[in-house]
Design brief:
The chain has 100 residues and is mainly alpha-helical. Helices cover 64% and strands 0% of the residues. The chain is globular. The N and C termini lie far apart (27 Å).
Length: 100
């Protein structure tokens, strides 16, 4: 089995932004994301600039297999790419700053 390559930090950020768009486009997912994150819809733009926010979006996607599979299909990626991208973002992995 071929291993999914580790994305660059820039590619990981791009994927996380795409994941946020995916979540925001689905009312049920978006409502769940807001409830779990404690963020209000009006605060999303400000929150998105905070360290760890994009990692939180990918963690949200990765934590629920049906959501992960739906996002991976929508993005045309291997589902493992999500967890690999998560590790490249601030607060996505304990060693993120060592890897960049």
């Amino acid at each position: 089995m071929r291993e999914t390559p580790m994305p660059s930090p820039e590619d990981a950020e791009t994927l996380a932004i795409r994941a946020l768009t995916f979540v925001a486009a689905d009312t049920t997912l978006f409502t769940r994301f807001l409830a779990l994150s404690g963020i209000e819809a009006a605060q999303i733009r400000r929150a998105a600039s905070e360290p760890g926010f994009l990692a939180g979006v990918l963690a949200f996607i990765a934590a629920h297999e049906p959501t992960l599979m739906a996002f991976a299909a929508d993005a045309g990626i291997d589902p493992a790419t999500v967890t690999r991208a998560l590790a490249r973002l601030p607060a996505g992995d304990q060693a993120w700053d060592v890897q960049t």
